[in-house]
Amino acid sequence: MVLRAIIRVARHYTKEIAIAFVLAVVAAIAIDRYYKWERSETMRNNRKAVATLTTYDASGHAVEQGTGFFVTNNGVLVTAYHVLKGAATIRAHLPSGAYYVFKGIRAADEKADIAVLQFDATDTPSVKALGDSDKLRVGDEVYAIGTPAGLEGTVSTGT
Fold first, then answer.
1. Looking at the DSSP assignment, which residues form a beta bridge with residue 104?
2. Do 50 and 145 contact (CB within 8 A), yes or no?
3. Per CATH, which fold does 49-127 belong to?
């Protein structure tokens, strides 16, 4: 009896149910594309703040190359400690072509392999909307932006 009533109602509203289903599918596709666009836009914008770092010894010879990223617009940059280990000076180069001169180390932890550097700069691009690493779970998609082997502005994804 109840099943017959449901079938009768479904037949009466078949057109409306079909339209609602199609609209739900279209909305899901649009939302998915928006989130993909938003992620891509975030990566494109953050790539502007990723610097190629070149370290030099006391005689001015290039020693090491690495990646860092500006976290403020006044020249504060984060990198791996091993990139600057033993360097007399460091130069940061952005994909825009801008170069920045090293002023000093603000903080460093060799064991954690992290360093916060200060460059003589104003109005540098800085990374934004990176998320919260404490909320990551196994299987979540992650992105890495860097300069491996001198290839500027690469973006890699993984889970």
1. 118
2. yes
3. Thrombin, subunit H (2.40.10)
